[in-house]
Design a protein that fits this description.
The protein is of the alpha+beta class. The chain has 3 domains: 108 residues, Double Stranded RNA Binding Domain (2-Layer Sandwich); 178 residues, no CATH class; 85 residues, Orthogonal Bundle (Arc Repressor Mutant, subunit A). Helices cover 51% and strands 15% of the residues. The strands form 2 sheets. Strands 2-3-4-5-1-6 form a 6-stranded antiparallel sheet. A 3-stranded antiparallel sheet has the order 7-9-8. Helix 4 crosses helix 12, helix 4 packs parallel to helix 13 and helix 14 runs antiparallel to helix 17.
């Protein structure tokens, strides 16, 4: 990284209370100047100014202005001496590196009992460099999540992906937000915390790659069919996509590193130059990971095994009344949303032979010219208390199995409708 130079001064200001055997500005200045560790063996100049002492180092460009603090009006815990040390320079790297040397000298050599930080332009400068890049990566991941899950899971992706705590948190935040744009768009993901955003990805990337999950599945197997099912899930397009594009590139570890830096920015933490360099490198790597994954969204095609796993997971979730799962349980325990869960009715998961029978009966009706997919699921089947989300998944599976054909027709109003029929 190039040397960081600013035409304005960077300030590092300390309030230092009760040193050992130092009671005036000149004594303190001399004690600081005599430190070989701070000045690399070349003592700086000491200059007397109005009501204060200045240390000026021509080699590094560092200035330290020392001013005595009036302690006579302290109400409690009376102390005899205190000083404000204002260290500044136009050279970022010089002042960044001198901070810890100066602090150690004040604390361990000069024995100041209390040291308080009044201002730290160095940390502020680093935070201001990091935060815009953190904000960019946050928005990049939000964009990716929306695009991937809507294109590959559906517009109810949020309920299918977020855990209960996340969903409740977003509901509360949306209730407090009344701006016009938020009232118009579906923007749940914009209310998600930075930590949760990353989890929405690496909950997918882990899948059954977690050895404990695989062991649990193996221990609960009863026949060869269970083993084949697990094998297919481990090799599924869904798991493979997230593993190759996120897990194998250490997305989770990198995201958690940025979480630490983001928390420091939010809570005005102390920053060091190496954190700036490291943070920018990690953010650049994350940007590349997310951007490359986004380019491959259109290439992701769910296999029949993927879809059957989604359907199985939905059924299990509904039957077991699992409402507090930690995020999306890929290929085995995924809870898909059902809009009819809002009502008090019980909805059933239609079976393959039932859905084929329903289609055959409609096709033989002289009143029906074609069967619109949306109408068939959301009205015809739903009115018979069949789950909407589960029905959609099963139809997708039967299309892949070539038992149902999907095609386009034009309605009497002239717009295109997706219709389905049994394969001849």
């Amino acid at each position: 990284m190039n040397k960081l130079i600013n035409i304005e001064n960077f300030f590092f200001e300390l309030l230092c209370i009760e040193p050992e055997d130092i009671n005036n500005e000149l004594s303190l200045a001399q004690a600081i100047c005599f430190s070989n560790n701070i000045w690399n063996g070349k003592s700086p100049n000491i200059e007397n100014e109005k009501s204060r002492i200045r240390i000026r180092d021509e080699n590094s460009g560092i200035n330290i202005v020392i001013k005595t603090v009036d302690t006579s009006k302290v109400l409690t815990n009376y102390f005899e001496s205190a000083f404000v040390l204002n260290t500044f320079s136009t050279d970022f790297e010089e002042i960044e590196s001198i901070r810890i040397k100066l602090l150690k000298h004040l604390k361990f050599t000069l024995k100041f009992n209390h040291i308080r930080l009044l201002s730290d332009d160095i940390s502020t400068f680093i935070a201001n460099k990091l935060y815009p890049e953190i904000n960019k990566i946050e928005n990049l991941l939000r964009r990716y999540l929306i695009k991937f899950f809507i294109q590959r899971v559906g517009f109810e992706w949020w309920e299918a992906t977020a855990n209960k705590a996340m969903i409740e948190k977003v509901k509360l935040r949306k209730a407090d937000k009344r701006d016009e744009i938020s009232l118009i768009i579906d923007d749940e993901v914009r209310y998600v915390d930075f930590d949760d955003l990353g989890e929405l990805i690496y909950k997918q990337s882990s899948g059954y790659n977690n050895p404990e999950k695989i062991v649990n599945r193996l221990l609960n197997m009863h026949n060869n069919e269970d083993f084949i099912t697990l094998k297919n899930e481990l090799q599924s397009n869904y798991t493979k996509y997230f593993k190759e594009n996120f897990q194998d590139k250490q997305f989770e570890q990198k995201w958690k590193e940025i979480i630490k830096l983001r928390h420091k920015v939010a809570h005005h933490g102390i920053f060091y130059k190496n954190e700036l360099n490291y943070g920018l490198d990690v953010l650049s790597s994350l940007s590349e990971i997310i951007s490359n994954a986004e380019k491959l969204i259109d290439d992701v095609v769910f296999s029949i095994e993927d879809k059957e796993a989604f359907r199985k997971a939905k059924i299990e979730a509904y039957q077991d009344d699992i409402k507090e799962m930690d995020g999306l349980k890929i290929l085995g325990r995924m809870e898909l949303p059902d809009i009819h869960e809002k009502y008090d009715k019980i909805y059933y998961d239609i079976e393959e032979d039932e859905i084929l029978d329903e289609l055959e009966e409609l096709q033989h009706s002289k009143w029906i010219k074609f069967i619109g997919l949306r109408w068939f699921v959301t009205e015809h089947l739903a009115n018979k208390n069949y789950s909407i989300s589960s029905s959609f998944i099963l139809i997708n599976i039967l299309i892949d199995k070539e038992k149902i054909v999907k095609y386009d027709v034009f309605s009497p109003s002239g717009y295109s409708i997706i219709a389905i029929k049994l394969k001849s």
